[in-house]
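hey m, so remember when u said the tokens were messed up on ur end? i reran from scratch. heres the input so u can diff it against urs
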Amino acid sequence: MASGDGYDPKGAIMEKGKKLKKEDLENFKQLFEDGFLASNGRVEPPDKEHKSWYAIGDPTEAAFTPLAIKAGLKPDELDKNFPLVHELPFDSERKRMTVIRKHKGKLIAYMKGGLISVLDVCTHLNDKGKVIPLTDKIKQEFIDKNQEFASQSLRVLALAYRDFPASVKKFTIKESEKDFVFAGFVAMIDPPRIGVKEAVENAYKAGIRIMI
């Protein structure tokens, strides 16, 4: 669980109410990197036109930036060290998107999308840094957890990655979106901002009718 409010990067990655230690976060580094590098949305700090941190681009994608920061990563360095090479955009049929980036002479694809859609193109799992075969039993466990989160009105996004030979010049959905390593998934909720309840109460007291 990540603590904090909105897009503000202040907060921490928690487990059972306690902040995860740096060495524990390292086990999930691939997941946090994947979420950020598979997204184009970013966040910016408050300025003259914005009183708080705000999203640039897709709001859901932007949420991966404060998550990465809370995990101890540096978004600016990631963008610099993993420049964009190509993108296979999201569509309603595939229900996923893939971003190909370059790093130290290698090409790496980062995928983000619906859980079942992503699982369909994964053959392995990154289990706390160790890559193991992704069995049908493990897939079903993820699907069951996804249904549990959905029943709680949480939105689930799955993440995966794979390497390509540096010699690859053309990326197609059919040839590129296969043999991925499943990195994990995140569950998101968009609760009312802090202070909204009080603002609504004050509006009612002032005789203002609120329409949503």
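this time it looks ok to me. The chain has one domain: 14-205. if urs says something different then somethings off w ur setup not the seq
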